## 1
Amino acid sequence: MRSSQPPFRPALARLADVSPLWAGAVLVVGVALLAWSAQLSIPVEPVPITLQSYVLISLAALLGWQLGGLAVVAYVAIGLMGLPVFSGGRSGVAMLTGTSGGFIAGFIVTALLVGWLEENRARARTLPLLGTLALGHLVLLMMGAGWLATLRGASFALEQGFLPFLPGAVLKTIFALATIIAVERLAGTPRGR
């Protein structure tokens, strides 16, 4: 059964639709923002606290699931190939088996989830978008802590890989919502409640 609503294209996805050149530029900027935000970190153990989840969910909502997912896959791929784009300038395949592995894998899942929900459910409405962003953060934290639990146990993962990230996740979700609304206003995207 088809929806009676017209297709919704997030603000930066519409920009990428203009030409392949714009699409490439949007992807490069997305990857660069993810790499930059990884370096803005509080170097705590076992996983540093970064600004990445803010950039991740903002980009996913503004790019949509296909382009946002592609940007995140490209970011993860270049990090795994050895470019120092992960937090603290780290890189390499070993990152997937380390304490940050669940978060790195979670970036892709979160980008796809947030982008898809924005395009198909939230559709530029403020409260559904807030819920989408919060869910994206929750999924990312659960994947990160879940992997950490396999390495060091559930109690350690909860105390060191989940709870310390919650206050920042709340703030980053609110800032992401404000950022998305600001970018959409600049792009002329109408917003409902």
## 2
Amino acid sequence: MAGLLRRALKGGLVLAAAVGAALAVPAFAPGLVWSRAATTPAGFAPSAERGAYLYAAGGCASCHATPGREDGAPAGGHELASPFGSFLVPNITPDRETGIGGWSGEDFIRAMTLGIDPKGRHLYPAFPYASYARMTNEDLLDLKAHLDSLEPVARANQPHQLGFPFSVRPGLALWKLAFFDPTPDSRLPVAASAAARRGAYLAEGPGHCAECHSDRNFAGAIRPETWMAGTPAGPDGRRVPGIRGADLGGWEPEDLVFALEYGMTPDGDELARGMDLVVRENTSKLTPEDREAIAAYLMSLRGS
């Protein structure tokens, strides 16, 4: 009993020290690992049409569409359950008061790639900025142009339902220092084809496939050795399979392309629950060439 008490007290002191240190770390410090310049080539003009494709490629509607709304407006409200509590998805329509209509392009890039909102607050990584950090600024500005073209919806965001210490938002500074590197880090071999490189960009960036298809550590960060290799504890506690070529048994690339378009395995079975939404809102809306590129990338992943 005495040993348990000592460990509990020690754990409490460590937690208190960690929270105190986090409170001392500024939300956006250019000298830290999450600095990134919001620059684009001279003369670049954002395209809402290109942004609409990226909106589909990222499956944004899967999380941001408001439950019960028939128009599919991304006004938020969906609840994401996790071991740390419930995250309430925000409004990303161009409403200036409750959405992101007042955000600049630089604000949007910083939020998408660094997890920092316009007020300088850290965003929880339930929003997969660790994946979106792999996207180019041009693609992000195209996506913002598409979102700005949507009908504004006035729907106030609800606070996340998190217990202590996860409710202490400044503590995310330490999480980032420990687990977040915004530098693109593709697992592709050096001699990969152009198609596989395109697939890597789509799957690792806007598609954020690793967010569900990888296992996580005690702090909710992806364990690198499980990248795309599946997890026994995915969304809603369900098992999520690996999607590397090494994990797909006898599948051929065309089998994976078919699954990404129709949501069915080579045997004619439907993909596991959850992937039906991904296929409907995301991969089925891609061009055939991009589905083939994603398949080429995933089939090239032979293991950690």
